[in-house]
Amino acid sequence: MLAEALEEPFLLFFVGMGKFGKSTLINSLLGRRKAEMDALPKTWKIDVFYGADNKDEVEIKYNNGLSEYLSYEEAQAMLEEEEIKREKSDDEVRKELRKQMQTLDTIEEKEELKEALEKHLLYKSPVIEARWPVQKNKVLEDFQLVDTPGLVQDLLGEMKMEVNEYYHKADGVIWLLDATKIAGEKSKEMLDKLTLAIKEVGGRTDNIIGVLNSIDLVRKSGGQDAVEKIMEEAESIFGRFFENIIPISAKEALEAVESGDKDLIESSGLSSLHDEIYRNFYLNANKVQLESKKIGVKRVLMDLEKNTAEYREKLQEDNKRRLKLKAELSKDIKKTKKEFINEIDAVLSDYRSNVEINIDNYAKEIFYQEQSRDKYIKNTIFEKKQLQQEIKRLEKEINEKLKSLGSYHQKRAVFKEFEHLNKSDITVSRLKTSLMMSTHGVYLDEDDVMSTGIGVAFAFSAIFGPIGFIVGGLASYFGLAKWILLKFKLGEIKQNLRSNLDDFVYKTKKKLRNKVMNEIKKIENKTASIRESSFAELHGPSSEYDKIIDFFESLNLAAEFDLKKRSLHETVFQDFNIQVDELVSRS
User: Fold this and answer.
1) What is the pLDDT of residue 28?
2) Shortest CA distance to 549 belongs to which of 301, 325, 302, 314?
3) Which pLDDT value is given to residue 335?
4) Please, are residues 26 and 46 in contact by the beta-carbon 8 Å criterion?
5) CB-based burial of residue 111 (10 Å sphere; 0-12 exposed, 13-18 middle, 19+ buried)?
6) Which pLDDT band, with edges at 50, 70 and 90, does 565 fall under?
7) Would you identify the CATH topology of the domain 2-53+135-283?
8) What is the model's pLDDT at position 201?
9) Which of 16, 30, 334, 558 could form a disulfide with 176 if both were Cys (CB 3.0 to 4.6 A apart)?
């Protein structure tokens, strides 16, 4: 609650765009070397230094909400190990990024590759905060000092404000700038970085004190005149961002504190910084803290609303696409079924016409084919080879269309985390297995389509029996005169042949249709499985879509949360009354 937060010591954040002496300045305010000074800023945690006499355990906070307490030595060793893991991972990811960037063409592919590598391969420490107890002094009586990651480069060299994940907790901010980079073109670069950084942390500037560090180097090179000139330029360039700008030498300040040199404390700028901190923050601590906490909570809720809004938009777009894909597949399936049925019917209709003509023209020749009646009936009258070739042609055509249908719809059915990246673009096996971009079943396997010849072989097996019966039934007449057979049995033979033709065409048509319909059903089921399973990997089952949307629409947290009109008195006592009401309700 806000009232409870106001009882905590003032959180004073130290922010800098690079290695500009943050830790050295913090140590000078702590009165001893506690913050690590000779290492690059850690981008994965914050260090909180708080006053606590007779306490030497360091609290390590994890991203799962748990904490553990370690000795100073144990904490330092553990954090060093985490940093080694991060650095090693960072080197590997950057190396892989440079390697794979050469194979990508579009900006979208490169951005998604960077995001994929950062998300799935870059080591992320579970540690988010280390709380270091320090013997109390004047500063630590009223403030907790927070060393932050600051502005760093991401994998593509773009500047990124890592502290924005923690910034909402800050009551006040000390923002360090490098005095040696104020002049010339570097001031423009600094201004751009500062503008970006302020934007990244929410745009608020009324609780920030600017500190111009390394002023001793400016003084050494140009004397007091150079210092005054640099201060004028700093005020002109950066004044709108800060309540005040204090020139300081963090290096001299730490030396002065450690040696007890009061004159050096004064000339280093440390005394001026003390005064500014107490004037801006201590004298109005409750008011500043309250406003900071309100804005911090507001920002968290706004970030939540922004993130949920972005995801909800993505979810709605994907579901709209899912339904469209489903409808398009259904339409194409219906169209394809009709086309295949018409093609099968057309082939068998032409075949029937040809065989009927053959029966009329060649049936009498059966009585003259004493050695090869069976072959004559199958090959000459029923045109076995011609039909076999025609069905093979039909099957090949259907196969190609089935493959095209399946490939087209199954490729489009895949919902991916990274739309522009394909498996072929990724050479890291760990990333391949991490990415939810499966294209399983996009291409039909050979076993999933009609195998050439199956339909034909089955179809002709249906007439072997009847043909044998016809020939066998005529055997007793072969000894008679042919003119007698032609006169009395030819009509019967023709009728039997036509009956067998009808039966053969009917069964062949049915089997071919069933075979094609089964293959189409396989494609339909496989496509639906890819579509629904890949959608579920990203968003959960599509059957839960309406519930998820209803949940997001019920949030509206940021829009309903308004603390602007609440006074300190109302905040404290409303929270107090809530606690009292809770106690009463339990009794």
Assistant:
1) 93
2) 314
3) 96
4) no
5) middle
6) very low
7) Rossmann fold (3.40.50)
8) 52
9) 16
